[in-house]
Design a protein that fits this description.
The protein is an alpha/beta fold. The protein is built from 39 helices and 26 strands. Helix 8 runs antiparallel to helix 18 and helix 31 crosses helix 32.
């Protein structure tokens, strides 16, 4: 495989046997790791090029009119291909066109080696977000000027291949050998390539006597090779890298003076941060945060966009922690925000502050890989396992040579990888602790050690809340914490103080307890008999009983799943934008003719309890005073973890379907758009305020809660009641509201059509037509550059499809990106939206916040409906019932404030910089017609607001956006 031809074809479609033809060939020759030749040509396909192909590739009928035919150029192309390996990105596509062209012109089919750079990239670049050629080229800084043109695609693929070869050639031999065992069933000939690399590595090894490991040279360099796995090498003395830096003597200067040393005209920030400017609101927040920590009070800060709140809480927080030799905990809403905070803001401060400090992140234990479990799964026979599972194992082998954290967030796995992760993730129930041979290399314990020693520890809300419940605290003891994106705290508490279970989870658990060959149960039985033949009869007896129960248990589980799915799907309604339909239930729902559900649940629980008894018998088969082998100890630990999980599932089945806890609201969800018959069961605490007030706010010295949206009509009272802060003495809770520094009255225009129909059902044609036409008008007036926010996925799909059809006739091409249609990955959609001219982005709930698109890429924002929680959502219904019982108006005291906070977040997507300019269109007439509508507008910054007939308003968009941008001040 030293001679290769990297090929890309542009075609009229994707079906060569149905008449689609090649319209451009790009080919790049590689010899001994060097690009030696290239060839590209347009081809006249003898047919009209479809418009969508022209839009994708830029190739028009005029461009190929005088081009040669395939018959004319094929001989030269085949001379280049002769004796070479065929390489392409998604090789099966290009290969089918090659084979069809060869057959149609009387040549033999190509029978040489084939390599697919998509497959290679997935294995060798397991931490990439995307494996599309354009995005790989961008990430790897490969020149790729004309995506979807064959010459540019072929050259970019050739450069990608050479990059992948560099990775392969630098890999340790043991990883290459293990990968070979996994790729034998892959579509392309990766196995042959790996064997070639292996032979070269073996040939380059010096001659060694039999007592020396063949990996000895590699082991002393960048790899830590242990138990036939290669890991990225870490510092020899683990504790040295975790040493808490010496803060030096405490600086007794007043806080205001120390602040001046950092952010003043002669301060260190000026030196280390290009373009740093002081901001009044930011400094006000810094003083308030430091004072709250000094006094031991809690502080709520609403800081508008552009305040610079990350620096405003980090700087005083770190200085206070330095003065008091305390650890500062920071909680963000998502793992992505954790990483951003560590790698951006914290990194900047580590350069800028006149003293050193360390920082680390910590996530839930299930985010970290268990090396012992991975080692075990890699020992399992590969025969019979799916290609996708082999790919995941291959990714993990490569990942071990690249990761220093073992954090699953780094991995880009196919769907089955997430199920496999459940087998290899770290967890308490199956941990050998210091008895584990991997303990000194354990990713989770290293993360815990880093967390314990760090001066600043960054966690997410999920972990912060889970720590309140854990018997053995997950986080190191702390007295001060900063909760960023604090408006999500109640939602995080609702989820993590609640309970969840799925029918898929049950079936997956049954698979893990399988008595078939290769599972943990039969493997333990075999190891026990090999270790202590004297207990062979006992082990055989337990296995016989387990085999008897196993098949009937799976039948009971599947019948129960079907019964539950049928009941739920007949009653469920759409209440989420995740493609699921929801039904609230009580235990009393399963009486009379539906009593069968409770009875079947009881039978399932009894069968699982019997099975667990025999699993426990297997665990206790050996005398306690016998010292087991490592294999027995390891498998026994895994089975004990499985039994613990089994017991938790039995408890959850009882909780969800056998008895009712009045403190919870219960509901089921079913997938409405996929064929999988699975049911998600959930329960949420009706009141989370009590669970936050005592263990969190009453116990801690000082908590700072901040967000761009904490107030409703300039009042913090709603958020304080939801967090239980109103249960504390008044003097313990302070508030501060800091407006955005942006000139919204000049930068933003908010339009409210007064002649639109009131929000109706999605099958109301008059309402739908008004929304579709309104969105079309905005998109055309702004030449794309539009984000359209929906509260329902079905509505998004309707408007997306309608706009796609109507924009197809526009003189200029528009590109639409729909969440859940073109991709489910928000970051990817935003990136594509920013990179394309005249593009439109359609989003639901996750796009209402956390999306940051500054500059000209986004000029208009459409809000189709006010973001009220669906009144039939179970959590809303349960809490509304509770409020009514307390004599309160559920709409005014919960639904309206929630909607206003989300509305503020949505509008906040538009103006992200002091030079930005944009138009917001709110198509929900309730904002001007209802009694409560004014509350939405009163909660916004000072936009220019205009309401009137839509034909008049839409004429305002283009002139407003074309006005001179504000000067940089």
């Amino acid at each position: 495989m030293k001679r290769l031809l990297v090929v890309d074809f542009e075609t009229t479609g994707s079906h060569p046997r149905q008449g689609d033809s090649i319209i451009q060939i790009g080919a790049v020759a590689i010899d001994d790791g060097q690009i030696t030749d290239s060839f590209s040509t347009m081809i006249n396909p003898g047919q009209v090029i479809p418009p969508f192909i022209t839009q994708l590739t830029g190739i028009t009928d005029e461009m190929v009119a005088d081009a040669p035919s395939l018959e004319e150029v094929f001989p030269r192309f085949l001379r280049m291909l002769d004796g070479r390996t065929f390489v392409a990105h998604n090789a099966s596509f290009d290969l089918q066109f090659l084979q069809e062209a060869l057959l149609s012109q009387g040549y033999y089919a190509f029978d040489g080696y084939v390599l697919d750079t998509v497959e290679l990239s997935r294995i060798l670049l397991p931490m990439q977000n995307s494996y599309r050629l354009g995005e790989l080229a961008s990430e790897l800084e490969i020149e790729h000027d004309n995506p979807h043109q064959a010459d540019s695609d072929a050259m970019a693929t050739a450069q990608l291949y050479l990059h992948l070869m560099d990775i392969l050639e630098s890999m340790p031999l043991v990883t290459i050998q293990r990968l070979q065992m996994l790729v034998s069933s892959f579509r392309s000939d990766i196995e042959v390539l790996l064997r070639q690399i292996e032979m070269e590595k073996l040939a380059s090894l010096p001659e060694l006597d039999d007592t020396v490991s063949p990996n000895v040279n590699e082991e002393s360099s960048m790899w830590d090779i242990y138990r036939q796995l290669a890991l990225r090498k870490r510092p020899e003395k683990l504790t040295a890298s975790f040493q808490r830096p010496d803060f030096g003597s405490v600086d007794h200067k007043p806080f205001v003076d120390r602040l001046e040393d950092v952010i003043g005209d002669e301060g260190t920030m000026r030196t280390h941060v290009a373009g740093y400017q002081r901001r009044d609101a930011q400094e006000a927040m810094m003083h308030a945060v430091f004072q709250a920590m000094q006094e031991g009070s809690h502080l709520l800060v609403e800081a508008g966009t552009g305040t610079g709140k990350s620096l405003a809480y980090l700087l005083p927080g770190i200085i206070w922690a330095k003065d008091n030799q305390q650890q500062l905990v920071i909680s963000t809403n998502t793992i992505q925000l954790q990483e951003q905070l560590l790698n951006k803001e914290i990194a900047t401060l580590q350069q800028s502050l006149p003293f050193s400090f360390s920082a680390s992140t910590l996530k839930g234990r299930g985010n970290y890989l268990c090396l012992r479990k991975l080692e075990q799964t890699l020992e399992e026979p590969v025969e019979g396992s799916s290609q996708e599972l082999r790919l995941v194992k291959g990714q993990m082998l490569t990942w071990l040579t690249q990761t220093s954290t073992g954090d699953v967030e780094e991995l880009s796995m196919p769907p089955s990888g997430h199920l496999f992760w459940q087998q290899v993730k770290s967890d308490t129930g199956s941990c050998l602790n210091r008895a584990c041979p991997w303990f000194s290399r354990c990713f989770y314990f290293q993360a815990k050690e880093r967390a314990r020693e760090a001066d600043v520890l960054i966690v997410n809300h999920a972990l912060l809340i889970s720590d309140l419940q854990a018997e053995n605290r997950i986080l190191p003891p702390y007295e001060v914490a900063i909760i960023d994106e604090a408006h999500h705290l109640e939602e995080a508490a609702t989820q993590h103080l609640g309970k969840q279970f799925t029918t898929t989870q049950l079936l997956f658990l049954l698979d893990r307890a399988s008595v078939d060959e290769g599972g943990v149960v039969p493997r333990l039985a075999e190891e026990l008999q090999n270790w202590l033949p004297a207990i062979s009869d006992v082990v055989t007896g337990q296995m016989t009983e387990l085999k008897k129960l196993s098949s009937t248990l799976r039948d009971k589980a599947q019948q129960w799943t079907q019964l539950l799915y049928t009941w739920a799907s007949e009653r469920a309604e759409e209440t989420t934008d995740a493609g699921r339909e929801t039904v609230r239930y009580r235990i009393e729902s399963f009486s009379g003719k539906h009593e069968k559900i409770r009875k079947n649940t009881k039978k399932l629980i009894d069968a699982m309890s019997s099975f667990a008894g025999y699993l426990d018998g297997l665990l206790r088969a050996a005398p306690a005073d016998e010292k087991p082998t490592f294999a027995v100890r390891s498998l026994r630990t895994d089975l004990q973890g499985l039994v613990n999980e089994w017991q938790k599932v039995i408890e959850l089945l009882h909780f969800f379907l056998q008895e009712h806890d009045p403190e919870y609201v219960y509901w089921m969800e079913v997938e409405s758009r996929v064929g999988r018959k699975q049911v998600h069961l959930s329960a949420a605490l009706l009141k989370v305020a009590d669970s936050l007030a005592q263990p969190l706010f009453a116990q801690k010295h000082s908590l700072i809660l901040t967000s761009a949206t904490l107030t409703v009509k300039n009042s913090f009272s709603y958020i304080m009641s939801r967090f239980g802060l109103d249960q504390l003495p008044e003097e313990r809770v302070k508030t501060l509201s800091l407006p955005s520094p942006f000139a919204y009255d000049k930068q933003g225009l908010l339009l409210i059509p007064a002649d639109f129909p009131a929000p109706g059902k999605e099958n109301d044609q008059i309402y739908l037509e008004a929304i579709i036409q309104g969105c079309l008008d905005v998109v055309l007036a702004t030449k794309g550059r539009t984000l359209i926010l929906f509260t329902s996925h079905s509505m998004l799909r309707i408007v997306y499809q309608a706009l796609k059809e109507r924009l197809a006739d526009a003189p200029e091409a528009y590109t639409l990106f729909g969440h859940g249609i073109d991709s489910n990955n928000r970051s990817k959609l935003v990136r594509l939206f920013q990179s394309m001219e005249r593009s439109v982005l359609f989003g639901t709930s996750s796009f209402w916040e956390g999306v940051d698109i500054p500059g000209d890429s986004l000029s208009s924002l459409v809000i189709v409906r006010l973001p009220f929680t669906p009144p039939n959502h179970p959590v809303y219904q349960g809490r509304a019932d509770l409020l009514k019982a307390e004599g309160k108006n559920a709409f005014m005291s919960m639904a309206l404030p929630q909607a206003i906070i989300l509305f503020k977040q949505g509008v906040g997507r538009l103006i992200r910089h002091h030079l930005d300019r944009g138009v917001v269109v709110v198509m929900d007439t309730r904002v001007v017609e209802s009694r409560y509508g004014r509350s939405f507008l009163q909660s916004l910054p000072s936009y220019q607001i205009e309401s009137g007939p839509w034909p008049t308003l839409r004429e305002r968009i283009e002139p407003f956006l074309s006005m001179q941008s504000l000067p940089d001040s």
